[in-house]
Design brief:
Shape: elongated
Number of helices: 2
Strand order of the largest sheet: 1-2-3
Order of helices and strands: HEEHE
Radius of gyration: 21 Å
Mean pLDDT: 86
Number of strands: 3
Distance between the termini: 17 Å
Helix content: 10-25%
Strand content: 5-15%
Length: 102
């Protein structure tokens, strides 16, 4: 999101941003990040069961597991803009400038 803001992009006016996982920091940034939340406890339990069966030599054939996700709408998404606004080009760093001075 910082890179978009560096281009003077309006979030969500020009660009919508969606993250994956509902990490605590996603509500601390501004705008608050819309996310796709996954059931991490269920995912971890499933992975542990598969690993234990593999270690014990009782693993079944590989199969696909589908876990339900939830979309959490916050402030970083919006409707498609009626007009596309040209974003400003990123400024070229001056010769010899280091990353800390940008």
């Amino acid at each position: 999101m910082d890179a978009l803001l560096d281009l003077d992009a309006r979030i969500p006016g020009d660009v919508s941003v969606v993250g994956f996982d509902d990490a605590e920091w996603t509500t601390l940034v501004r705008p608050r990040l819309s996310v796709v939340s996954q059931p991490v406890q269920e995912l971890g339990g499933l992975a542990a069961d598969i690993l234990i069966h593999r270690i014990n030599g009782t693993a079944a054939r590989p199969r696909r597991h589908t876990l339900h996700t939830t979309y959490i709408d916050r402030e970083s998404t919006g409707p498609v803009p009626a007009r596309v606004r040209r974003l400003r080009a990123p400024s070229d760093p001056s010769p010899g400038a280091d990353a800390a001075s940008r």
